[in-house]
Structure formats: C-alpha cells, structure tokens
C-alpha cells in the first residue's frame, strides 16, 4: 500500500470487498429498472456517495484518500464487475471528472470547485466528439474571443456521456481557425447552466444503460477567460493526456468484466453435466478456459506496469503508448472472454436472469469499450506513432 494513503492496508482490502459486494448486489438490483428507464434513480447516487465512490481517488487536499494510481485502478476493477452504465459513471468520476480541472484549471476556478467533487456536489463530463467532423484538427465547434475578452462558444457535440447528472462540461473547441494543426484547439470548462447550453436527446444504447448519453448544442454561449483550460492552442494536448490515463481505466474496466466472466464460466463448466461428465473436464472447454486466463493475466500485467510507471512520473515517456496498448489489448481480451463465456454457457447464457451472473448484459455492456475513448484504429495509430518516434523498444526499469 502507498505509505501516504489515508487508509490502512486492511481497510483498503475491506473496501475492495465492500465495492465488489455493492456492484454485484444492490447495483445489479437497481440496474434491472435502469435497463428499461435508461436513467439512474437517486438511490444509485446515494449508494455511491455512502460508499465513498466519489472520494476514494481524490488527493487528501480535496477530501480523498491519497491512493496511488494502481490502488485507484484496483477499486475500478471491483465496481466494473457490476452494471456497465454504473461502471461508466464511476470510472469517469474517478478520472477525467476531476483530473482535467486539477491538471489544467485556473487557480480561481480550482479554488471554487476542487473540494466539491468528493460528494458529487460537482460532476463534469467531457465533450470532444462531433457529428460533423473527425476528432482532432477536424472539429468544428468554435470558441472565438469577443471584444470584451470573453469566448463565445458555438457548435455541437455528440455521443456525450453523463449529460443528465453533470454540472459542467469540458469542451474542446476551435479557438484559432486559421491554424491547420491540432493547435487550432483549446479546452474549456463550460457551466451547463450557462445561457446557450442545450442537451439533445439520443436513443437508448446496446448496453451500459443509464449513463446519460446525449448530444450537446452551444449557441452564442459566453465564457469568461477563467474557464480556459491550460493555454490557448493546448486543447488537443489536454485531451490526449487526459484520455491516456482514462484509457487505462477502460482497460481496467474490461479486466474487471473479463475476470467476472471467467469466474462464472468456471462455475458453470463445473456444474453442467453432459454425457455423464461436467463439461469442465472436456479438453475443448479447458482450451477455452486457458485462452481466457492467458488474456486476463497479460492484460493485468500490462495495466500494473502502466500504473507503476505512472506513479513514478505521470508524464513519463511511455504514458500515451502504454495506455493505448492497454486499451487495445483489453478489447481483444474482453472480446475473446465474452465469446468463450457465451459458448461455455450455451443457450442459458443468452437469457436474462442467468443464475450464475448477468451473462447477456455483460456481453452487451463490454461492447461499448470498442468505442469509448477511441476506437481500436485510433489506439493503433497512437501506438505506431510513438513506436516510430522512439525506434521500437520500450525501456523498462525493475525495482
Ligand atoms: C458508450 C459511448 C460513450 C461515449 N462517451 C463519449 C464522451 O463522453 N465524450 C466524447 O467526446 N465522446 C464520447 N463517445 C464517442 C467516442 O469517443 C467515439 O464514438 C469514438 O471515438 C469513435 O468516434 P466516432 O464515433 O466519431 O467514429 P468515426 O470517427 O466515424 O469512426 C468510424 C471508424 O473509422 C475510423 N476512423 C475515423 N477516422 C479515421 C482516420 N483518420 N484514420 C483511420 N481510421 C479512422 C475509426 O477508428 C472508427 O473505426 C462515446 C461513445 C460511446 C459509444
């Protein structure tokens, strides 16, 4: 355990257990209704608060426990075993929600808001994706300075999570339209109650229900300069750095889901008797189990390696590359593990209310991971770019 942490080893291990029981117990119960309504009831937020799920990841100066990155990720693994939409909400809470403001906010806004994350008095979503263009220099939402020195925001965002429970939105927009590179872009913290801020409803998703997805529309929304994040032109850099860490949280989400899928598959394979023997004794089933465990183990090692480097230096040379590797490999992992789970369960796995666990919901929920925070192509582009820059060999330090 990190020696600076505000809780002991024993308290931390007990907390992990508490979060697993919450995710697989009360959260699963609540989710049955959320699958239909697509909205979290107040009871979910209250349980999350009561179980410190808006607090555990924060530095103590903001009311948190001073956990290190690996410890934060280990909590994420536990709640990721539960419903995907809740996982999405809590994953975002633990990461970009507060980290972007902490890393890039002005002193004035940080003094106003940083101690309000611990009990969800403040929650910030993140909006980069647009319907009208590609993510990067091709964004079209603009934030142009007016004569008073304020920025005026116009444009749209699409596929944005947590729009129904957020107070602010981190928006990446064009401030320097004459530039043809990513330096066209800047980041802003936008109060959702500002005049000109509008939420555009979207249809229900395949899985991860309840996480408040919608489009956003900005019409002549006026922003004071204190809401600029970092410097003008730094928008893409802010997005890339923030998404790097968050991509590892996605990888850990996949690990949590894959671990649960493997465990319930083992139970089912032991219980299911065909032709007088448990299917777990058949070599074809053993091969599936071995392949599932192989992927899960390697993914865990990659995430733990990332977290160790990140704890030493959050801006180390390999953050972006290793984060993209973790995310990409985690998609391969959850793809293989969910497919094998379904085969091991046979027809029963395709139905709701499977007594071993929510097989059909896990299968749907995990597919959001293909897209969340960058499709596999984008991860490959990132890995290849970094790899070509440093000549191909990652240097490892073992201590
Ligand atoms: C559940 C969910 C939650 C999300 N939450 C958020 C959120 O909170 N905030 C937010 O900003 N966005 C969010 N998104 C959007 C998500 O980040 C994007 O869907 C994802 O990055 C892919 O972008 P796109 O949908 O615009 O696909 P497109 O850009 O249309 O891409 C389609 C395919 O083409 C490939 N492609 C596109 N351009 C290139 C290129 N230049 N070179 C090679 N291949 C390319 C892509 O990799 C992809 O495979 C969310 C999406 C989902 C599904």
Automatic annotation (TrEMBL):
Domain Acyl-CoA oxidase/dehydrogenase middle: 126-220
Residue ranges annotated for the Acyl-CoA dehydrogenase/oxidase C-terminal domain, each copy included: 233-386
Gene Ontology MF terms in the entry: acyl-CoA dehydrogenase activity; flavin adenine dinucleotide binding
A Pfam family reported for this protein in Swiss-Prot or TrEMBL: Acyl-CoA_dh_M
Xref: SUPFAM superfamilies: Acyl-CoA dehydrogenase C-terminal domain-like, Acyl-CoA dehydrogenase NM domain-like
Signal peptide feature range: none
Record family assignment: Belongs to the acyl-CoA dehydrogenase family.
Entries under PANTHER family matching the protein: MEDIUM-CHAIN SPECIFIC ACYL-COA DEHYDROGENASE, MITOCHONDRIAL, MEDIUM-CHAIN SPECIFIC ACYL-COA DEHYDROGENASE, MITOCHONDRIAL-RELATED
Protein name: Acyl-CoA dehydrogenase
Organism (species): Senegalimassilia anaerobia
């Amino acid at each position: 355990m990190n020696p600076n942490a505000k809780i002991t080893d024993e308290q931390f291990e007990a907390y992990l257990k508490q979060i697993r029981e919450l995710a697989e117990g009360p959260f699963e119960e609540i989710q049955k209704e959320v699958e239909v309504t697509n909205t979290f009831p107040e009871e979910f937020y209250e349980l999350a608060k009561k179980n410190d799920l808006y607090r555990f990841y924060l530095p103590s100066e903001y009311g948190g426990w001073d956990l290190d990155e690996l410890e934060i990720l280990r909590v994420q693994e536990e709640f990721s075993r539960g419903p995907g939409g809740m996982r999405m909400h809590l994953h975002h809470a633990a990461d970009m929600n507060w980290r972007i403001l902490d890393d890039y906010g002005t002193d004035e806004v940080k003094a106003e808001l940083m101690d309000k994350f611990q009990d969800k008095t403040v929650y910030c979503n993140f909006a980069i994706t647009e319907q009208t263009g590609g993510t990067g220099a091709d964004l079209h939402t603009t934030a142009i300075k007016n004569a008073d020195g304020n920025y005026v925001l116009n444009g749209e965002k699409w596929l944005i999570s947590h729009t129904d429970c957020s107070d602010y939105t981190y928006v990446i927009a064009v401030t320097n339209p004459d530039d043809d590179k990513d330096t066209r872009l800047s980041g802003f913290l936008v109060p959702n109650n500002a005049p000109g801020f509008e939420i555009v409803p979207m249809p229900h998703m395949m899985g991860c229900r309840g996480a408040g997805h919608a489009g956003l529309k900005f019409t002549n929304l006026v922003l004071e300069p204190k809401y600029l994040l970092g410097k003008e032109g730094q928008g893409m850099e802010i997005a890339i750095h923030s998404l790097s860490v968050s991509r590892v949280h996605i990888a850990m989400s996949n690990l949590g889901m894959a671990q649960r899928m493997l465990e319930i598959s083992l139970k089912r394979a032991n219980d299911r008797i065909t032709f007088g023997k448990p299917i777990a004794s058949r070599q074809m089933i053993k091969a599936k189990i071995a392949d599932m465990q192989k992927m899960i183990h390697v993914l865990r090692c990659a995430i733990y390696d990332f977290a160790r480097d990140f704890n030493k230096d959050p801006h180390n040379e390999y953050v972006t590359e290793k984060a993209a590797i973790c995310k990409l490999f985690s998609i391969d992992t959850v793809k293989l593990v969910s497919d094998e789970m379904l085969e091991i369960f046979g027809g029963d796995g395709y139905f709701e209310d499977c007594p071993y666990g929510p097989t059909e919901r896990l299968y749907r929920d995990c597919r959001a991971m293909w897209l969340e925070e960058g499709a596999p192509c984008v991860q490959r582009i990132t890995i290849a770019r970094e790899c070509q820059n440093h000549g191909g060999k990652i240097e490892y330090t073992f201590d």
